[in-house]
Amino acid sequence: MKKTVLVTGASAGIGKQTAIYLAQNGYTVYGAARRLENMQDLIPYGIKSIRLDITNEESVQACVDQVLQEAGSIDILVNNAGFGLEGAIEDVPIKDARYQLEVNVFGAMHLTQLVLPTMRANKYGKIVNISSVGGKVALPLGGWYHASKFALEALSDSLRNEVRGFGIDVIVVEPGATRSEWGTIATDSLLTISGHTAYQGLATKAHTLFTRLSNNIQEPIEIAKLIRKGIEAARPKTRYVPKELNSRVLLEAV
Hints:
- By secondary structure, the chain is of the alpha/beta class.
- The termini are far apart.
- It has a single domain, classed as 3-Layer(aba) Sandwich (Rossmann fold), CATH 3.40.50.720.
- Helix 3 packs parallel to helix 4 (143-163).
- The chain is built from eight helices and seven strands, in the order E-H-E-E-H-E-H-E-H-E-H-H-H-E-H.
- It has a seven-stranded parallel β-sheet, with helices on both faces.
- The longest helix is centred in the middle third of the chain and has 29 residues, at 94-122.
- One of its GO terms (molecular function) is oxidoreductase activity.
- InterPro entries: NAD(P)-bd_dom_sf, SDR_fam.
- This is SDR family NAD(P)-dependent oxidoreductase.
- Keywords: Oxidoreductase.
């Protein structure tokens, strides 16, 4: 029987590629994102698109309700929706820092809470949380982003031990730099937020470095393959890490 997968952040990057790749490999896939218009190219693959604002409780509930009504279950959840903002901790407005945590942490965990009852009833489920190498090493000018990913890592570890007895696996995927519009947005925010403050020198140096490194990053398909490997493993690893740029090199360079 085909498994049903819900992939968030499916309008671009890792989310879109994962939705397509899993659909091509026999899964029933629902792609969810705020920008419904950016998911029209998923239709030829048989992927159903849902408009989802991960920070809005009613939108999250409606998304889960629609999938359960149409498919009967959500067997696999890929929490990929994410938001990244770079800048010195002192410079990032608290409302923006709060939004980053709302998307990367609370939104993902609210969605997880809503899919767990059906998974428990079915005695089967896979929760895939897309973290980052930035969930293990914190670099300067990314403090709020790192905080969100460190939190996601901790919640994943706690959740794994809570739901294992119900036949549910919790899998963390930790990409390094991956080609997507997110990377450009995050990097450009460096100069917008800290390019004219006491941290100008550090921000300018970091921006130059990240721009240079942007030509040597992973493609989203590599992460999609890791996700499939994790959800199809009889006993999945707790974490899947692709070949990535060593974070120590970045830290020393900055």
